[in-house]
Write a structure and sequence with these properties.
Number of helices of chain B: 1
Largest sheet of chain A: 22 strands, antiparallel, barrel
Helix content of chain B: under 10%
Largest sheet of chain B: 10 strands, antiparallel
Order of helices and strands of chain B: HEEEEEEEEEEEEEEEEEEEEE
Structural class of chain A: mainly beta
Structural class of chain B: mainly beta
Oligomer: heterodimer
Number of strands of chain A: 31
Number of helices of chain A: 4
Number of strands of chain B: 21
Strand content of chain A: over 45%
Shape of chain B: globular
Largest interface: A-B, 30 and 23 residues
Chain lengths: ~650, ~280
């Protein structure tokens, strides 16, 4: 360890410190939010979920109006690594009500790096998503700030918040605060979707200190608190989802070392539901501590990156059911039996410029993961199903990737291949009677599964000629030992009304194909025509269609931009989803098309700016649902919004 | 640092407290963990009866006996027999009871399976016969047998027209786990004679009536062990109230009593209850 640190120190002399290294050839960067907020985003105070949904590589599985689950390359969240500024966070909800993305707010973030395939983030199949926070800069003494507010008619959502940043040559400080409060939304046609309300408070702060001209220290904290969150697609709601995420980083040119800690508390209950077969509480906790040290550098034609990381997590979730018979004792079980994860990882990547036009990138990484079932009752419960189960399970998770990139004058071609492995997630490995409200099965984890593996190919062509710019991209994942819950005959359902019990098993193989096309055309001096198409396909051995796979989806819009005024008309839609998984509870979903319009004006008031943005979503008030809507809960109907952002 | 210090102090303190407490109470004796139920007295001896709960209840009772003479000296090397008897309005009957064995240090151990509770009019008494040297003594007195909070004993007539008594022995402390389950099975030969039954099978089907009457996987039906008791495995997937539906099969696997739980039949006519 010490030797390695010294090696890192020596290397810093030749470090390439610019951020513009084009190493991640397969990366898609979603710029969320420039400091001025005058970017072209449809709705600046939209939720992060809606931003991510615009990426061709990401689908957001929706269980309500809040906390959607990111599916990268058509694969469930267990198959990707989602980090916040490189920090690992484990969700605390057994029912996926709190993906990592739910513990930040759009106002915390500068961009989202969506990476397909293997990366420094850790062992994954589909790829990784890094939510990159806004961070101040050192500079001349300056105070700037922002205040914003928004209102939406459909769910009577209010957004209020602000941000303040101070920079000096030695220090910078940013703080921001956002409050969101939404009532139940109404589907197209006016039908109220019960239990779709939520309230969220998010505050974050960054403090940077420049130690000397080479190095700086940055401390950062996010406090996120969502309360009274409804999940119309599920049988339970969330009283509280609280995340505290803290880190301390030391940055020396291209070398960054960070230690971090985060703690999540998630309180799931059915207190708001008037009629239930039996009352229950399902709280969960997740605590993660970790570090990473990453170094970027270049030497001659090589540009390289090394990353050393490790983390520890404890996930615990329990369920208490209150008998309807007076005097009977509560029924208690551990749905996540206190699962400890110890994970260590080494990763290296080198990009070699063979010529001016050709570049190859290779990467390799290995992670070692040890899972321990910490709680005795939890271990004994699982041993009911797996009598010989060991308390510990060590896995070695390898990954490799290679890509070739060719830069023509205005076009860029990339072709890559990768190999990756992952360990089963906490629920897949150790979940205990987790009810899935979509297929209405109780799920039992399987601690004896092998690693899931993938061989993937991906490629893209992007470029610009005259008024046209476009990108065609595709990826194909061949997964081996694909983890999926399958019905197990002979097991008795625990949840009242459940259809059966599924146990996680492994299919010999599964294949997932992703394809996307983007094209923009400059119609005139002020008009841009933007188009986006995407399609996924997924099938496995003995499972004709993998669940929650996106059908052919499109978006086409005309944008107008002239000086301080901008306007958009966009149509989003999808064709009928005919390839669905009945065993998972899916049904065919009809095609749809939804029209959105918006307009914005940027006022200049002395030294400050005021942006007013207003628009109508789902103008025709269509009642529709997509493949990504858990339990087929319809999406929001017509919604008029106003966003006001004042910057100074 | 401060926190660590205070934790250390707390640990030291609690160790000290728990040690000193033990010194006050503990008599180095094999009656540790047992509570006196009652003492049967005659002119020469006091026969003290102990159980873990401090009472006799319907079902399986492990009973410990200590005999002291009038000087308070514990009698060792005693051979003991006993006879529990129920005095009903129109009849008298006994119940299954084991032989009384020697534990250590003058404590004698056996078990009694009470198939019903006593009341003012219909009561249990216990006769203890014991031999010290060549002299045989006897003592008889009324004992109080309470109804157990949960159903842990079944007394029924089988399809073969015999009367059986089936009582739950373990788990005494059920856990969310695969529990060892044990039971005793007796056939009633006469009003005062019960004999242990050999080579039967006791089928179990644990259910949670409060939670959709679901069952649990990997249960093992009870079969007879070398010591005559019946042993099996009982999976309890969560805490709460469990009903263990029973079926009694004879040595030829013929059903004598109890019904399978199905969609239309919520429970068997014979069952045990556990709540934890």
């Amino acid at each position: 360890m010490l030797r390695l640190t010294i090696a890192f120190l020596l290397c810093t002399l030749t470090v390439y410190s610019q951020d513009t290294i084009k190493m991640d050839l397969l990366k898609e960067v979603e710029i969320i939010h420039k400091r001025s907020l005058s970017d072209k985003t449809g709705k600046p105070l939209s939720t992060l979920d809606k931003y991510l949904e615009k990426s061709n590589m990401v689908n957001m599985i929706r269980r309500g109006a809040y906390a959607w689950e990111p599916y990268l390359n058509g694969m469930a969240s267990e198959r990707s690594v989602v980090t916040i500024d490189g920090m690992r966070i484990y969700a605390a909800c057994t029912d996926k009500m709190d993906p990592v993305t739910s513990y930040v707010d759009i106002t915390n973030l500068a961009k989202v790096n969506v990476h397909s395939g293997q990366s420094a983030a850790g062992a994954a199949i589909a790829g990784s998503i890094d939510l990159v926070r806004k961070k101040g800069t050192f500079g001349e003494k300056k105070l700037s700030g922002m205040a914003f507010t928004g209102f939406e008619t459909n769910s009577e959502q209010q957004v209020i918040g602000g941000a303040l940043s101070v920079s000096t040559p030695k220090m910078f400080t940013d703080i921001d605060f956002t409050y969101r409060n939404a009532g139940n939304y109404k589907a197209g046609g006016g039908e109220e979707v019960l239990y779709s309300q939520y309230t969220k408070y998010n505050t974050s702060a960054n403090v940077g200190y420049r130690v000397n001209e080479h190095s700086q220290v940055v401390a950062s904290v996010i406090y996120d608190r969502a309360v009274h969150v409804g999940y119309p697609a599920l049988t339970m709601d969330v009283g509280l989802a609280r995340g505290v995420i803290a880190s301390l980083a030391y940055i020396r040119h291209g070398w960054e070392t960070k230690v971090y800690y985060n703690t999540i508390r998630h309180v799931m209950d059915d207190k708001q539901r008037p009629v239930v077969p039996v009352r229950m509480d399902m709280p969960g906790w997740s605590k993660t501590a970790g570090f990473y040290s990453s170094l970027k550098g270049s030497e001659g034609k090589h540009t390289w990156k090394g990353n050393l990381s490790g983390h520890y997590n404890k996930s615990l979730a329990e369920m208490t059911m209150y008998s309807n018979t007076a005097g009977e004792k509560d029924m208690f079980m551990l749905t996540w039996p206190g699962v400890l994860t110890y994970y260590g990882d080494v990763y290296g990547e080198d990009s070699y410029a063979m010529s001016e036009r050709w570049r190859t990138t290779v990467s390799a990484g290995v992670g070692v993961q040890n899972n321990v079932v910490d709680n005795v009752q939890g271990l004994e419960s699982l041993r009911i199903f797996y009598p010989g189960m060991e308390r510990n399970k060590v896995r070695v998770l390898k990954r490799l990737s290679a890509a070739v990139n060719y830069m023509a004058d205005s076009w860029q071609y990339t072709l890559g291949a990768g190999y990756g492995e992952r360990a089963p997630g906490v629920s897949e490995g150790y979940g205990y009677y987790l009810f899935n409200s979509f297929d209405r099965y109780d799920y039992i984890g399987n601690p004896e599964m092998k690693n899931e593996r993938t061989v993937s190919l991906n490629g893209s062509v992007s470029g610009r000629t005259g008024k046209f710019s476009g990108k065609v991209s595709g990826s194909f994942f061949h997964l081996m030992d694909y983890i999926i819950g399958r019905p197990r005959a002979g097991l008795s359902v625990m949840t009242i009304g459940a259809a059966g019990v599924k146990v996680y098993e492994q299919l010999a193989y599964a294949d997932v194909l992703n394809a996307g096309v983007e094209g923009d055309y400059q119609v005139g001096p002020y008009l841009t025509w933007t188009n986006r198409l995407s399609y996924r396909w997924g099938s496995g051995k003995g499972v004709r269609n993998l669940p929650l796979i996106q059908p052919f989806t499109y978006s086409s819009g005309m944008g107008f931009l002239r000086r301080a005024f901008s306007a958009d008309v966009v149509v989003n839609g999808a064709l009928k989803q005919a390839r669905y998984n009945e065993e998972f509870g899916e049904q065919a979903t009809a095609g749809y098309a939804v029209l959105n319009v918006s307009g914005a004006y940027q006022f200049r008031l002395w030294r400050s700016g005021l942006m007013v943005k207003t628009g109508v979503e789902n103008v025709m008030d269509r009642k529709y649902r997509t493949f990504a809507d858990w339990n087929r809960v319809p999406r929001m109907g017509r919604n008029i919004f106003v966003n006001l952002i004042w910057t100074y | 640092m401060n926190l660590l210090k205070s934790v250390l102090i707390l640990i030291t303190f609690s160790v000290f407290v728990s040690c000193s407490k033990k010194e006050d109470v503990v008599i180095p004796d094999d009656l540790d963990g047992l509570t006196l139920v009652t003492t049967l007295t005659n002119d020469t001896h006091k026969v003290a009866l102990y159980t873990t709960s401090g009472k006799f209840q319907t079902g399986y009772n492990e009973v410990y006996i200590q005999i002291k003479n009038t000087q308070g000296i514990v009698e060792r090397n005693v051979s003991v027999t006993w006879l529990p008897l129920m005095h009903m309005m129109g009849m008298e009957h006994s119940c299954p009871a084991s032989a009384v064995g020697n534990k250590t240090n003058g404590i004698y151990k056996g078990y009694i399976v009470f198939q019903m509770a006593g009341s003012e009019e219909e009561y249990w008494d216990l006769t203890v016969n014991y031999t010290i040297g060549n002299t045989t003594y006897t003592v008889t007195d009324k004992i109080t047998v309470a109804e157990a909070a949960k159903r842990v004993v079944e007394s029924f007539k089988g399809a073969d027209n015999n009367r059986y008594v089936l009582a739950l022995v373990h788990p005494a402390k059920p856990a969310v786990a695969v529990n060892d389950i044990a039971a005793v099975l007796y056939k009633m030969e006469s009003m005062t004679s019960f004999v242990a039954v050999k080579n039967y099978t006791i089928k179990i089907d644990p259910r949670m009536p409060g939670m959709g009457n679901h069952t649990s996987p990997n249960n093992v039906d009870l079969t007879q062990g070398t010591d005559g008791m019946y042993y099996g495995k009982l999976s309890l997937t969560m805490t709460g109230y469990w009903k263990i539906n029973l079926q009694l099969l004879d040595a030829t696997q013929t059903n004598l009593k109890g019904e399978a739980v199905t969609d239309t039949n919520e429970g068997s006519s014979i069952y045990f209850e556990l709540e934890f």
